[in-house]
Amino acid sequence: MKLSKQEFLSLSGMGNDTLNAWIEDEWLIPSGSSVELSFSEIDIARAQLIRDLQMDFGVNDEGVGVILNLVDQLYGMRRTLMELRQAVRTTSEQS
Amino acid sequence: MKDPYEILGVAPTASADDIQKAYRKLAKKLHPDLNPGNAEAEEKFKEIAGAYGLVGDAEKRKRFDNGEIDAAGAERPRQNYYRDYASSEQDHPYTDNSGFADFMDSEDAFAELLRRSAQAQANRRGHDLAYRLPIEFIESIAGANKRLTLPDGNTLDVTIPPGITEGQVLRLRGKGAPGSGKGGFGDALIEVEIKPDRSFTRQGDDIYLELPITLTEAVLGARIKVPTPTGAVTMAVPKGSNTGTTLRLRGKGAPKHAGGYGDQLVKLKVMLPREPNPELEAFVSGWESGRTYNPRDEVAP
Fold first, then answer.
1. Model ipTM?
2. Between B31, B92, B100, which is nearest A80 by CB?
3. Helix axes B109-122, A61-94, angle to 10 degrees
4. Among partner residues B81, B92, B99, which is closest to A73 by beta-carbon distance?
5. What are phi and psi of A39, to 5 degrees?
6. Confidence (pLDDT) at B106
7. What is the pTM of this model?
8. Residue A74: its chain B contacts at CB < 8 A?
9. What is the CATH code for B129-194?
């Protein structure tokens, strides 16, 4: 699924300025060019996470940046861990 | 479902502030995106989110306290969590390997495995980029060279093969988004949109054209010039042609997949002179069989 900026705004209920600020801070990294941004499911889910952090947990902007950085590292490790598991499985099947 | 106050660990008399505090405290610990490997946390989070959805809202809390609604069905339905996408095998821009970069520096087998998987992530092919390209009907039959201006100001030269159909997608290899590392570029996918033509329509490999002819050409026959998408050709209109008579120009249609061409079908339309013509009127009023022929014979009354 690919969404235009307009569709993303109406689906997420966010304001344009807020979205621009999030993109500026790289909290969100939509694909496409600067003229025509394109959003996918992961961007929607990430925006929901950021809103949970802000609205429900009362985390301020600095805190959100720190959390996202750690979250990205955590998921980077999980992905690598999954790939390692796959590699180990493949190796043990072969031997 | 359990009592929402109990789930949140507050007294039923707790203030709205206390309820919010209790919820935040639990949610911070249990949010599924912050506990990606913990299924139990997700279950608990759903519970507290459902409880908070009920008694965290002043209006709903009042109705719950008055017994108008119960705790059943209070769990908030929610679209997928971030972790469902972030953990997937699909490439995404948020992956960050810096959390274990130091592990990759050593010389053992484990570091080698890590390096390989990081490299696989670093060398992903770029995304395919989709565009739409409107073309004229004639270009769709005859083929054309088009230049597509992209949103970022760059251009793409696209060769339209003859006979392309509506919605067909042309793939330009390596013209998509850049990949990471040695992943290379994705492809540009160009969906062709054929603008409707004023005169020509297409059905399968055949092209249809309605062509006006004069009364004289219809009655006496003639050789006339007929436009086709690939240029005008001469066609013989037989004597006594009528409105609706369809003539076939073999091989003047769209190119076929298997080779060869379809036909162009020309449907004639007899046109009287634009202005009333005294000569014609004089002839027709003295033309006896014009009064006895009834073309409506076969039309139902």
1. 0.83
2. B100
3. 120
4. B99
5. -115, 150
6. 78
7. 0.52
8. 36, 99
9. 2.60.260.20
